[in-house]
Amino acid sequence: MRIFKKLDIFMVRQFLLLFIGTFCISLFVLMMQFLWRYVDELIGKGLSLDVLGKFFWYMGLMLVPQALPLAVLLSSLITMGNLGESSELTAIKAAGISLIKSLRGVIIIVTMIAGLSFVFQNDIGPQSNVNLRQLLLSMKQKSPELEIPEEIFYSGIPNCNLYVQKKDLNTGMLYGVMIYRMTQSFEDAAIILADSGKLQSTEEKMHLLLTLYNGEWFENMRSQEFAGNANVPYRRESFTEKQIVLDFDNGFNLAEASGISQSATAQSIKQLLHHIDSLKTFQDSVGKEVRKELRTMAFNTPEVKKEDSIAAIRHEAKGKAMVDSLFHKLPPEKQLNLMQQLRNRVGNANMQAEFRSYAAEVNFKMVREDWIELVNKFTLSLMVIVFFFIGSSLGAIIRKGGLGVPVIISVVVFILFYILDNTGFRMARQASWSIAFGKGLAPAVLIPLAAWVTYKANKDSTVFNMDAYRLFFIRVLGLRVKRHITSKEVIIHDPDYFADMRRLTRLTDNVRRYSRKYKLKYLLSAIAAAVRYRPDPELDAINEELEALVDDLSNTRDRFILSYLNKYPIISEKGLGRLRLYRELKQIRKVNDLMIARIEQVTKNI
To answer: N- to C-terminal Cα distance for the chain?
Structure first.
């Protein structure tokens, strides 16, 4: 017996063809969003094609796990929508095959895609993340003349801080230039002020040539004979044009990846578990050391013996104050010395406590980030399967193919997932929520949603029938419902016009009698009828007579009679609709007069 039958192969082929296209679209959209954040790092840097190729390659590999759930959601929606719109899904269900059984082969493929997503997150994604961050850091260090900001000191050039008041991007001129140069010490400092200047790279890409115009140079004298003097002499130089050569390797060199590889997103599950264990071991060792220091801490001084301190503490416990008496026995200079020692020790202990508290907080934050990233590798893979069931079920219910409705639904579902997941991630990272609650928020909402829509789709529910919802709210709110009667293509029995004329006359008399009896012309009577609603047999009889009349006259071929039928109101029998009952009955009498006149013209030829 074959595992995959013809129906499975057909469904898998339909899904995979759309999945490949939607995956490329989803990955392209995510890459453009990511590229927009770092477009300033790429433009005007003179990067070679191989560097740009590596950048896009690593970026694509890193974004594959995020593109897979969106692609599965969109492709499953379009697949089932196309099948439903072309009635192929109806034929499948008519053959006695349930929705879940027809998707058996696709479910296997989607499970494999979820496994592929996990492999990318655990093995390929971390290394791609390291390589991408390494490239971005190297791009920031390349061509500093293009990165110099306005009105901010730039320290990207070694031993030099550069301030530019204004920059012209077209000519490359810098205006209002201020430079602080410092090589080894304060005595070597130099300050350079210039009205304008220009910064260019040399041909060998190992130096920067700074050309300054109309400025002054202030520099401390470097003579060793002034090393111990507080007043260091300096020299001043005015110039109209001056060129300065600055050491700077302007070639593209990859930055060190040692610090980058320690981030949570750059590690696999095995590395994350090892890192978490290392951080906990380090924190435990620090805690044991602190506890040991607190137990052995004692303020022992040569002036106060240990035995006297113990005796003072015992007498203090009995209510006899001896600590102060021991302190006052010391000479004044020793008391001052002892107070200074105690103040220094308390200050040092306070500084150590603050430093250890900060270190513990940083360590705790790193542990949380590692756990969040570890859980994220599983939840993002799980979302591939959840999105498939949501997309396939909604597509089977709505039965709209193409890129219209499916794209809108996919965007709405993905935005819901993004908001829940991002909110949970931020709250878990800030330790406001637990990691399990923060990262489990999106699955906790979307998994029941997927189960519900799958159940509804498997039972052929009309949960997304918009006409049913529209009629429901119209009835609840008491809104007016209009008739839509059109000419029938096949008419079996023609209307009995003579009998209908008698019905119309009788209906007009009943409506007039009802309005006079209940005084519907007055607003207070109509409000009272709406508030104190009771069954009304007379109004029910009028409504039944009107509907029977409309049903019989709908078989006519006369277009005027059909247009008059659409002018009949649908009587609101209770609730807020009774507030306009007088107008509806008045409209019935008016239409009856038009209908009688028209029927008389039609029956003249009979």
So the answer is: 72
Residue 484 phi, psi dihedral angles, 5° rounding: -135, 80
Strand partners, 207: 247
What distance in Å separates the CA atoms of residue 41 and residue 144, rounded to the nearest whole number? Answer: 11
pTM given for the model: 0.60
Q: What is the pLDDT of residues 410-420, one digit of tens each?
A: 888 888 988 99
Q: What is the pLDDT of residues 141-197, one digit of tens each?
A: 555 555 677 777 777 676 778 888 888 767 778 888 888 876 655 555 788 888 888
| Distance separating alpha carbons of residues 376 and 443, to the nearest angstrom | 11
Tallying the residues shown for the chain, one arrives at 606
Residue 334 to residue 328: CA distance in whole angstroms: 10
State phi, psi for 218 to the nearest 5 degrees: -115, 125
Residue 88, SS3 per DSSP:
helix
DSSP E strands in 362-401: the ranges are none
Tokens at 90, concatenated: 């109806």
Q: Per residue in 303-340, pLDDT tens?
A: 445 555 555 555 555 544 445 566 666 777 777 787 78
Q: CA–CA separation, 553 vs 566, rounded Å?
A: 11
Q: Which helix H or strand E contains 208, and what residues bound it?
A: strand 207-220
- Sole residue written with tokens 């069931």: 389
CA of residue 568 relative to chain centroid, distance: 51
